[in-house]
Amino acid sequence: MAEAALRSAPFDRTRLVQWLQAYGVYAGVAALLVVNTVITPHFLTAENFRTQAVQVAPVIIVALGMALVIGTEGVDLSVGAVMALAASVTALYLGYGLLPTLLVVALFAAGVGLANGALVAFVGVQPIVATLALMVGGRGLALVLLPQLKDLRNPSLASLGSGDVLGVPYLILIAAALALLVAFAVRRTTFGRQLLAIGDSRPAAQLAGLPVRRVLIIVYVVCALLAAVAGVLATARLQASDPTSLGNLMELSAITAVVVGGTPLTGGRVSIGGTVAGAVLIQLLTATLIKHDLPPSWTQIAQAIVIVAAVYAARGRGKR
Amino acid sequence: MTTTNTDAPVTPARTEPPQHAHPVGSARSERLSALVQQHGALAVLLVVSLVASFSFDSFATGDNFSNMATGSAFLAIVALGMTFVIITGGIDLSVGSLFALGGVLAAWGSRHGTMMALLLPLAVCGSIGVVNGLLVARSRLAPFIVTLAAMLGARGLMLALTDEGADTYLIGKGSFLAELGQGSTLGLANPVWITLALFASGALVLRRTRFGQHVYAVGGNEDAAALMGAPVARTKILVYALSGLLAGLAGALNAAWLASGVTILGSGMELEAISAVVIGGTLLTGGLGQVSGSLVGVLLLKVIQNVINQIGSLDSSYQQVVSGAFLAVVVVAQTWLGRRRQLM
Predict the structure, then answer these.
(1) B293 to chain A nearest CA, in Å?
(2) Chain-chain contact of A143 with B327 (C-beta, under 8 angstroms)
(3) What is residue A298's predicted lDDT score, i.e. its pLDDT?
(4) Is the pLDDT confidence value at B80 over 80?
(5) Per-residue model confidence as pLDDT tens digits over A290-300
(6) Interface of B with A in 241-300 (CB under 8 A)
(7) What whole-number distance in Å separates Cα of residue A227 and Cα of residue A62?
């Protein structure tokens, strides 16, 4: 930092790199918006923005929880399975009304989060393995509860999925509110500081007397609860419960959004704004390619390139 | 990611350093822990197989065993490469996509002769493995992210080759490739023989060559390995190349077995392979493990699958629940044993 300040050359490469590392993902989103405005017909319409935002909302919600977990130097592979589980439970309990259903969904999700957190915090299992078990088992359980797709006809669920306030869909409002809440928790609360300290160095946090186990368990429970919210919202939007394919590869999309947004996998640092922008960047990229009739295979290859480029650019921001 | 996660959980209540624990008299129990960690999966496999053969008449039959062996062969080859990667402390999420890509390339190439059908998947999947290795070793990117990108990229490439999954390339009947995949020698299917040969070579390479020593050294402690003169970057590049090659080969053999390059295969295979390796006693933190364990891990997953299929009334989704629960139990047991070994 001092080195960058001392140099007063008109063009400072170090500062450009630092700027890109900090704001590259926002610049990417802005660039895609500009490019699309120029080359994509009907891009600048309220309808299109609404569609894109509604599609990206569940990814953002899952990625928020994933960002917290990654901040503790962990990873949660079970989020897709939790979405499927939430969909199954919703279908099973919807007969009793929306509110009781949401409570049962939250209980299931908290159970998954507790199991993940306990394996990581008390047994000392690596997060990737601890959550792998529930990734496999959780979707199995979702399919045991509800073996196939089921149409849901419930007015309150339908309005949750497609209703809006002054033209802004509930899905977007919920995603935005959750993002603000999580950002506040990370930046302004003791819990947030403890989380980052644990991600920075778990032994040091332990020696400093932080409640490491409690924080880790809360982080995994929050991550599972957010995934369940995304699962219910996606189910509400589809008006169908689809435990087979809902949330498939969601863990990878969420991790990608977090990492592209500049949160290092090595923990100790979390960027919530970057995470939201990362999810939006990938959604816009996919939409751009699809709108110009490029086949899905290109989308996947482009995603792969963006991921490597973003991580390469953010290299060295974490520890070491 | 896995390379940095080497810190063992520290318990605040137990601040006593490990060297003050009792070194005398614990040697036997330490050896027992090591034995359970290395061969626990084998013991479980034997018990499950024994119980299953008493419970179901159709389990302990030659037909069923040879079906299970053939069904395990392809996953086992993928898990072999994964074992090398995990011992270096890395992870390879791209193997499922490379498996599918290898199958499609083999089937596509079979129009131009057997050599093309075998060399094309090996060349392409091996190259993608080399790129993975270069990014991990030279650019120091997290293996998780690099191979995740390769997973997306390779699947995209496979879709591009097959007109977004609409085209299926067939492998001609009676060709050498078809014979290699579908034929059998001395009562065992050819893929099973190939798998056994690959595992024997893998065990030899890991245990008896300098490269094998480097693989363990890099996974044990990368900095120490570098200080001792082990070629850390080259070793990492080689293990990812090996993993890519083996995934491509497994895909090609599977395509030969099915007589076509099926585009929907391989998704989730990376996780099955990782599960098998972990169940087989290889630690995800690196530095410890053996290929025989991974073979046992694959067989265990297949036997459980088979048993659940034999219980006709059970839905196949229970298979996932049981696999997940089983993985959790094994991992908890392993972690517990691993920590005991560290404390003693």
Answers:
(1) 17
(2) no
(3) 85
(4) yes
(5) 888 888 888 88
(6) 271, 274-275, 278, 284-285
(7) 5
Dihedral Cα B197, B202, B208, B209, nearest 10 deg: 120
Let me know: does B306 contact B135? Beta carbons within 8 Å.
no
φ, ψ (nearest 5 deg) of residue B260: -160, 160
Mean pLDDT in residue range B115-142: 92
Look at the pTM and tell me if it is higher than 0.80: yes
Is residue B242's pLDDT more than 50? yes
User: Which uninterrupted H or E stretch holds A240?
Assistant: strand A240-241
User: Residue A286 and residue A56: Cα distance in Å, rounded?
Assistant: 11
Burial class (CB in 10 A: 0-12, 13-18, 19+), B37: buried
Using CB atoms, pick whichever of B146, B164, B284 lies closest to residue A295. Answer: B164
Of residues A116, A303, A140, A143, the one with CA closest to residue A227: A116
Alpha helices (H) in A7-126, listed in sequence order: 13-39, 46-71, 79-93, 98-118
Which of A66, A87, A62, A49 is closest to A244 using CA atoms? A87
Residues in chain A: 320
- The whole-number pLDDT of residue A100 equals 92
Mean residue pLDDT across chain A: 87
pLDDT at residue B12, as a whole number: 43
